[in-house]
């Protein structure tokens, strides 16, 4: 089997780069013929994957953290359409923790990722898409495999994305510290939520949208599992919905910018529209 591997040596605090020879040897047992691209900046990944697909590569593997994986996924699409509908996407997550891996039942760490890849099958999966704004007011479009959110949870993702403490004192410590700081600073905010059969101005802490893992025989489900947490962030009071789309917009009562994240990576701010792309990716997982 052949594969095009996009590799981020800076993932997991640089440990991925130090372990690369071992990772390469493990991958070669599954994909004897591989091409490699070593990233030097996040913005390179999507463009590199898009170019590789246009050159005819049909198996793309992202090796790195959640940011690398999400960037690689975004390279499969251009102007709302798949670049190569027959291509297969897979990944090896090298970080300490990953919401995407937890959702797909994959243990963190490259050893577990490669072991899972060796026995994984290709499935057609739905993909989420969000259109929002950057902090400077520019339009942003992001695709995601696992989940997206807005509000408190997205603010935590933004804080972690900017964290220098994680590089110095470790991911787990930084995650706990930033979660505590963001919670202390957070104030419930009112936004308008418009989904299938639901239109409400609500005080929220977070709104979570998960790409459903339950699929029909065609591979499609076409719905988000949506959870709205009230302004006090009470999971026991959460409202659960299923919807194919969501529009979230600030109101006159909204306090400041409201963050949006996809697969654990900051994407932008409200207003935002989320929708499902049914059976949009061939995922080896």
Q: How many β-strand runs?
A: 16
Q: What percent of the residues sit in helical stretches (DSSP H or I)? A: 25-40%
Assigned CATH class of the largest domain: Mainly Beta
Going across the major beta sheet, what is the strand order? 9-11-10-14-16-15
Measured by DSSP, the beta-strand proportion falls in: 35-45%
Question: What does this entry look like structurally?
Answer:
The protein is of the alpha+beta class and 285 residues long. The chain has helices spanning 15-18, 20-28, 42-54, 66-74, 99-104, 110-119, 152-161, 165-169, 171-185; strands spanning 2-7, 33-38, 59-64, 77-78, 81-82, 88-93, 122-133, 139-144, 147-151, 189-195, 198-211, 224-230, 239-243, 245-250, 259-262, 265-284. The radius of gyration is 19 Å and the shape is globular. Strand 12 and strand 13 (239-243) form a beta hairpin. It has a six-stranded antiparallel β-barrel with strand order 9-11-10-14-16-15. Strands 4-5 form a two-stranded antiparallel sheet. The chain has nine helices and 16 strands. It has two domains: 2-120, Rossmann fold (3-Layer(aba) Sandwich), CATH 3.40.50; 127-278, Tumour Suppressor Smad4 (Sandwich), CATH 2.60.200.40.
């Amino acid at each position: 089997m052949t594969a095009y591997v996009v590799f981020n040596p800076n993932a997991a605090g640089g440990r991925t780069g130090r372990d690369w020879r071992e990772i390469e040897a493990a991958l070669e047992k599954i994909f004897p013929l591989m091409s490699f691209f070593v990233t030097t900046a996040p913005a390179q990944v999507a463009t590199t994957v898009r170019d590789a697909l246009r050159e005819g590569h049909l198996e793309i593997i992202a090796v790195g953290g959640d940011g690398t994986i999400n960037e690689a996924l975004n390279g499969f699409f251009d102007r709302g359409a798949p670049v190569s509908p027959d291509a297969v996407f897979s990944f090896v997550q090298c970080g300490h923790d990953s919401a995407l891996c937890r959702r797909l039942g994959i243990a963190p760490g490259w050893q577990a990722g490669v072991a899972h890849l060796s026995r994984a099958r290709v499935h057609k999966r739905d993909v989420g898409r969000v259109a929002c704004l950057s902090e400077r007011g520019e339009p942003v479009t992001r695709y995601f495999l696992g989940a997206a959110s807005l509000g408190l949870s997205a603010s935590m993702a933004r804080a972690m994305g900017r964290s220098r403490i994680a590089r110095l004192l470790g991911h787990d410590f930084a995650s706990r510290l930033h979660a505590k700081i963001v919670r202390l600073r957070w104030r419930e905010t009112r936004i308008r939520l418009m989904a299938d059969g639901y239109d409400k101005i609500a005080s929220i802490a977070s709104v979570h949208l998960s790409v459903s893992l339950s699929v029909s025989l065609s591979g499609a489900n076409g719905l988000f599992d949506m959870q709205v947490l009230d302004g006090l962030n009470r999971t026991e009071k959460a409202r659960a919905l299923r919807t194919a789309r969501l529009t979230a917009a600030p109101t006159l009562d909204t306090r400041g910018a409201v963050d949006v994240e996809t697969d654990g990576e900051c994407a932008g701010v409200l207003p935002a529209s989320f929708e499902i792309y049914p059976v949009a990716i061939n995922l080896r997982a």
